Amino acid sequence: MDNLIALLVAAPLLGAAVLLCGGRRLDAVGHWIGTVLAAASFVIGAVLFADMLGKDAEHRAVGQHLFSWIPVEGFQADVAFQLDQLSMTFVLLITGVGSLIHVYSIGYMEHDERRRRFFGYLNLFLAAMLLLVLADNYLLLYVGWEGVGLASYLLIGFWQHKPSAATAAKKAFLVNRVGDLGLSIAIMLMFTTFGTFAFGPVLEATGETGEGTLTAIGLMLLLAACGKSAQVPLQSWLGDAMEGPTPVSALIHAATMVTAGVYLIVRSGEIFNAAPDAQLVTTVVGAVTLLFGAIVGCAKDDIKKALAGSTMSQIGYMILAAGLGPIGYVFAIMHLVTHGFFKAGLFLGAGSVMHGMNDEVDMRRYGGLRKYMPVTFVTFGLGYLAIIGFPGLSGFFSKDKIIEAAFAKGGTEGWILGSVALLGAAVTAFYMTRVMLMTFFGEKRWQPDERGNEPHPHESPKSMTIPMVVLAFGSVFAGGFFGVGDRFVHWLEPVTEHTHGHPPIGATAVTLSTVTVMVVGVGLAYLLYGRRPVPAVAPRGSLLTRAARRDLLQDDFNHVVLVRGGEHLTRSLVYVDHTLVDGVVNGTAASMGGLSGRLRKLQNGYARSYAVSMFGGAALLIAATLLMRAV
Amino acid sequence: MNPVNYLYLAALLFTIGATGVLIRRNAIVVFMCVELMLNACNLAFVAFSRMHGNLDGQIIAFFTMVVAAAEVVVGLAIIVSLFRSRHSASVDDASLMKL
């Protein structure tokens, strides 16, 4: 049974290879091959899951050693897999949501002539992400990590004929490289400290290692997580990544890519537990990002970018929870899974809206779509209720637990983190209500585009609506299924450990305040966007609104500090090179040349000049001889 | 007569010869000046021979004369062929290794 683990990765990898090497003769069936192989991976995952449930909680972790990759004395790199409860959760999320997105893409990409290639990339994405979560050592994890980066680059830039998409892909890749640097440094530090990369030995040895080293490793891992999970300060790629086709956004935001950072931190939990400073930085990064993303989400008129801000904010919650230590790990993963359902649903809903609206993304040109797209409206609406934490839906259970855990951190820190998380919940309710009202309610605001084509909003085909319905089910019931009776906690506890946190104001009070701030956020959005018509052209807005429209000046900051700074550094280096280095080299050459020019004059061919030299030399010799004799 | 006076004369002749080599352009004159220097040396050798009372200096003077005779043969031959090819006996005109 354990031998099936490799097949999980092999199935989508095979799909990618066949689709990308198969050429045009596969154009007609390419999307079916991709979807079937993704679904096959899900089925294998489900079989392994059933097998795992049949065992005791303590014996559920299984492994498979495939082959020795680099067997050198003192340096053992194996291609080996490890499937425990944490990996299993990810496998089911990745393959399940991934397969639904494959099905959706069949309809969404129907008119794209490069659809086969698109499915090849999607399969590659799944394979890389599965490799990442199934690896049993950090080096193999790094392989998957880079594979995810590659696949995201290919997919974000899928419509490469648009310069904006090509640039966005490049940006995502470059920003991710900064994070990758963190991971590679962390792996090197691990190797010099522990002499191995494998999860088991590394995480067991944390007890005997100095806190300074562990803090350094933890911070490097956090940097890596920031890159992949779009956390401040490496968040800038996420908004631009919306240039890719919408199913890609759903895949990146729900099942793959951005969840990798959370996985990395939770998987390396023992390192963070032993390094409180790294944990503190992690919580701060999470808290800052969850507000950052939420504020950006409030100001965007582009439906996909508003959702992107929301993802950033929700991942911020997960990183915050992961930084809290054993009281938060389980809830970070639980929120990750529920978020996977409702965010995939929301993105697929947004794609469905765009599909019916001639690819219009500006919400100010939507309005009143609920009458035209009933299925999209209902599924998007359920995703919306889940993300704002409406009592009883998925987001309520997971987000409430994170806020509770943040308060339970204790001391001033606990109060600050808890309040930030609570504030984030209010802002989440505000911006998601805004998206909902601007898209599906109010007057219709769409107009003919430049070519005079009036959009005719219509419901999307079955291949698109069915995945949305399935995901809506997940958005509604997953949280309750996980949360009631602490089912999810018991499931993950053997891997991540769990300590029950006690918030200083009581769990019920936290839940009540979460619901209260949610109602306040929804009410505020209703007053601003529901009671009065939405202008079709964005008003100028306050200073904060304008900053938030520009992603809170993240690109301006990067431009001024990093690009300009880099340019100045380069220029000064070039100056030093030109003046100092070239000066020394050219100066030596010039003085040698000058000296040779003078020496050359001695060889002029005039016999009398040679005679002078001879006489001069002879005179010198005689003078020297006389001098020596005198002395 | 004091033999040192011969040395003074030898030095004077040598200086005249050297000056002639350095400042004259005509190859024949330069050649004659070289002969003058050789003979100044011979005179010095003979004078030293007399002063020290042995014959070493006189023997070397004979050697010098033999070598100088050979040198004259070769030198004059070169000067003649140089004059034939360039129609000039100036040493400064012959500053290149080719025609």
TrEMBL record, chain B:
InterPro entries listed in its UniProt record: NADH_UbQ_OxRdtase_chain4L/K (IPR001133), NUOK/Mnh_C1-like (IPR039428)
Membrane-spanning parts: 6-23, 28-48, 60-83
Catalysed reaction, written as an equation: a quinone + NADH + 5 H(+)(in) = a quinol + NAD(+) + 4 H(+)(out)
UniProtKB keywords: Cell membrane, Membrane, NAD, Oxidoreductase, Quinone, Translocase, Transmembrane, Transmembrane helix, Transport, Ubiquinone
Record-level Gene Ontology MF annotations: NADH dehydrogenase (quinone) (non-electrogenic) activity; quinone binding
Location (main, coarse): membrane
GO cellular component terms attached to this protein's record: NADH dehydrogenase complex; plasma membrane
Localization annotation: Cell membrane; Membrane
Gene3D superfamilies: 1.10.287.3510
One GO BP annotation of this record: ATP synthesis coupled electron transport
Topology class, membrane: Multi-pass membrane protein
Matches recorded under Pfam families: Oxidored_q2 (PF00420)
EC number(s) given by UniProt: 7.1.1.-
Subunit details: NDH-1 is composed of 14 different subunits. Subunits NuoA, H, J, K, L, M, N constitute the membrane sector of the complex.
Function: NDH-1 shuttles electrons from NADH, via FMN and iron-sulfur (Fe-S) centers, to quinones in the respiratory chain. The immediate electron acceptor for the enzyme in this species is believed to be a menaquinone. Couples the redox reaction to proton translocation (for every two electrons transferred, four hydrogen ions are translocated across the cytoplasmic membrane), and thus conserves the redox energy in a proton gradient.
NCBIfam families with a match to the protein in the record: PRK05715.1-2, PRK05715.1-3, PRK05715.1-5
Family recorded in the similarity comment: Belongs to the complex I subunit 4L family.
Name of the protein: NADH-quinone oxidoreductase subunit K
Organism, scientific name: Streptomyces mutabilis
Lineage of the organism: Bacteria, Bacillati, Actinomycetota, Actinomycetes, Kitasatosporales
